[in-house]
Structures
1.
Amino acid sequence: MPFHLRTSERASCRLEIRLTNAEREQLKEMAEAAGLSVSELLRLRALGRAVQASSDMTTIRELRRLGGLQKHTINKLLNETGVTAECIDTIKALREAIERLAR
């Protein structure tokens, strides 16, 4: 979500909260995984908006790429039913993994 504009209005108010050191570290790790600042992560979460980890998006892209390669393999090996069935099973597994990550 880099370069995502929240609104045309620039944030100008501060909100102070108390956290334990463990909570602060956990928030920093979550923000880093999502590719956001801690402030942006808290804003999104507090306002009920979805936060998608950037690593999840990278994984989803890779799984989609692998699915495309499997599809290409199926097209090349249409006459060999055992290999084709295995490729179809692999594509189904990739699709399930993408759906789990997307949730």
2.
Amino acid sequence: MTDEKQAMIEMRGVVKKFSNAAGEFTVLKGVDLTINRGEFVSIVGKSGSGKSTLLNMITGIDHPSGGQVIVGQKNIYDGVSESQRSKWRGENLGIVFQFFQLLPMLTLLENVMLPMDYVNKYDFDERPLRAMELLELVGLEEFANKLPVLVSTGQQQLAAIARAMACDPPLLIADEPTGNLDTRSSDTIIKLFQHFVALGKTIVMVTHDPSLTSRTDRNVIISDGEVIDETISRALPQLRHRHMLEFTKLAQRRVYQPRETILSRDQVVDHFFMIRSGEVEVVLQKPRKEEVVLSRLGADEFFGETELLRGGKSIANVRAAGSPVEALTIPRADFVRVMNESPITMEAVGKIVQQRLEARRVADPRRSWWKR
């Protein structure tokens, strides 16, 4: 269980429903999500998957239909009025929008000062100094007295980030912050975010850009209003989101104690295993009780695929190493079916099968692993 003292965001069974002329529809379907302090997390998903609604729950802009949203150990909906939530948001959140949302009649310096004025933070004379320091941090000190229209889109976004950090919030929410920027400007933004994370800030960023998700600490995928299990998305990144979500619903959690056997050689394998935590050893038992450890597998790696895809029984022993192992398992029939529906994933897994078979062939050349 996540230590609550370390959690910046906790969403517990969050549901969001909307009603219109066509009837009621559910956008978020019981979302459970924890984001710890100091993490840089990207949230991805197809259009309409619920990403923006998820952000609106975290920022207090919209109300959940059910469940709890706790930010910084504060339940931001239960017993909290709109004005209280607005003040809380100004003091604790920085929000960066895709289209900047700078006030066009104010200079960059004045835009950055606005949040301080709103929540009455810092002495009046200190605010312009604080705003200038932030503009210097993002490289815009020379443009402090210019209107937004007189600087580039990349510079406008940098100014928006400076504004979001005006009150030194512990949490920064960014909704497609690089969506309208070129590659160079996007890189500048991400490096700036990484700098804030190094200072202890927590950043949650919605993005469609896979080059950016690789630079965050975690990548949370939302599909059809539900959060995909991160072990599954990391173990099988080539899967379509709908298949990841299907595996999320099918997966069963199993825990194995240190040195406990998970699979025995010649045992019929009826599940695909993905490691959530801990480490397993793939062991070949040779004559005279001699052991050869063929490989060690850790978090987000998997095993059982060789036997499931090629048929037959386990071709080695698999056991928990020196600490408990938590694994997610998928039944054989479901795993094989989804692999057949996802040729790209089948190809990627197939390459791993070939590598592991070759390793076992080298370790014990007398056995015909290829025909098992």
3.
Amino acid sequence: MIHKIPIIAYQKGEHDILVDLREETVYHFGTLPQAINISVNEIEKLYALPKDRHIVLFCQQGDYSAEIAKLLSDNGYEVTDLTGGYREWLVRSFA
């Protein structure tokens, strides 16, 4: 099942694995607190994440995270897609 919530409304849960899907070089310029980086080019690493944890995904604008959320959900993962992406989080955080 895929849950969708706006990135600005997200509160990290104790058992969440927060995944930034952007490229590593972009990730190092800034990300959400406690996010790990697994870029969309490393999709095989996503399938190594534990299925008993809640996977929370975001990317730059929300397009890739929606696609990856569908793939993971179809393979038995509980997934949340943070809509709006990192760009939205930056705009709202510093407005």
4.
Amino acid sequence: MQRQRRNLQMIFQDPSACLNPLMTIGQSIADPLLIHHLAKPAEVKHRVCEMLERVSLIPPDAFYDRFPSQLSGGQQQRVAIARALITQPKLLICDEPVSMLDATVQAQVLELMLELKREFELTYLFITHDLWVARFFCDRIAVMNGGQIVELGPTQKLFAAPQHPYTQKLLGAAPLLASR
């Protein structure tokens, strides 16, 4: 079961809530490596620094010994992404991962996540209420209403010709989105 958990990781909405305030950034990212026995203690710092660099927390040594409270929200979310990626998962479940960030940082983090998707051949299950983010980020969308999937399809098709009345209502509430 532990091996399966390694292949499935999560990125949460509020990175400050999922990062232990008593652990340094280096410890937080290293923890999954040690839990899953994916690195020898002598190589952990090197692997963590590589991942910090990959999520654009540069120079990595400047972040390694800092605590979450010493970082901005965008930097904390990058740490959460690095922590999720350090086990080399196949699936990342992303629960509103950019909703707490301002628009500029949101765009930067989404671009980073798209790069990482290609580089690591990841699959994202991206949960969001933000139709703009869904349209930008997702290849396929499942629209839910009352806990049930009411429509599922390719993003472009769903936005161009929504079939379900609930999807039509959602897009009707955002007319600029539906007309593009």
